[in-house]
Amino acid sequence: MEAAARVIARRGVRGLRVEELAAEAGVSTALIYYHFKDRAGILRQTLEFINDRAGSYTTGRDPDAAPLEPRQALEQTLLLELQDDETVRENSTAWGELRASAIFEPHLREDLAKATLIWVQEIADLLGRVRPMATAADLAITAERLTALVEGLSMRWLGGILPLRHARALVLDAVDAELERLGGR
After folding, report:
1. Cα–Cα distances in Å, from 155 out to 10, 138, 149, 174?
2. For residues 142 and 127, what is the distance between their CA atoms, to the nearest angstrom?
3. In this structure, are residues 43 and 21 in contact, taking their beta carbons and an 8 Å threshold?
4. Residue 12 to residue 6: CA distance in whole angstroms
């Protein structure tokens, strides 16, 4: 799966060749087809892998660390999607490639929609801890705006259009604005 994420990040979904994936993974092409059945299976499993890996670096914490306040947990979860780390860069690039390819590969749309919904729900839950009196609908809309912003800023940062420090500052400004919009203390 790591090899698939690397190849997709490097070549894009349309440039994914099973032979290159097999070489990158150090296995035979036949083994790739045996395990994934077809190209759609590779893409589906890679998307799942990317989501799981993102979860590990956005929610994984040292068990001995002091617990975060709700707002800190929200900010950290969003900001960890924007860090100068090879795994994060690869993951974000591969996610962007998969998302963009859904325009041409409709079979990816449902899986991408589910993955996005899970992320939005996770952020809505964190927002609900910060603003417990907000409605579920307001939390979901706010989470959707924040996750879409992070995706867009990530693509600009990865494309060299936006410095990482500025992208992270924009996320924190957006969190401030969205929490103010939700009201309460």
Report:
1. 14, 26, 10, 17
2. 8
3. no
4. 9
Written as one letter, the residue type at 112 is L
Alpha-carbon torsion 11, 85, 157, 70, what sign? positive
User: How far, in Å, are 44, 56, 93, 140, 177 from residue 9 at the CA level?
Assistant: 15, 19, 5, 29, 32
Of 65, 118, 123, 57, give the one whose Cα is nearest residue 92: 57
How far apart are alpha carbons 172 and 121 in whole angstroms?
Answer: 19
- pLDDT tens-place values along the chain, 185 residues long: 888 888 888 888 888 888 888 888 889 889 888 888 888 888 888 888 888 888 777 777 677 888 889 999 999 999 999 999 999 999 999 988 888 888 888 888 988 999 999 999 999 999 999 999 999 999 999 999 999 999 999 999 999 999 999 999 999 999 999 999 998 65
Cα separation, 105 vs 44, in Å, equals: 11
pTM: 0.85
Alpha helices in 104-163 (DSSP H): 109-130, 136-158
Residue 119 CA neighbour count, 13 Å, CB half: 27
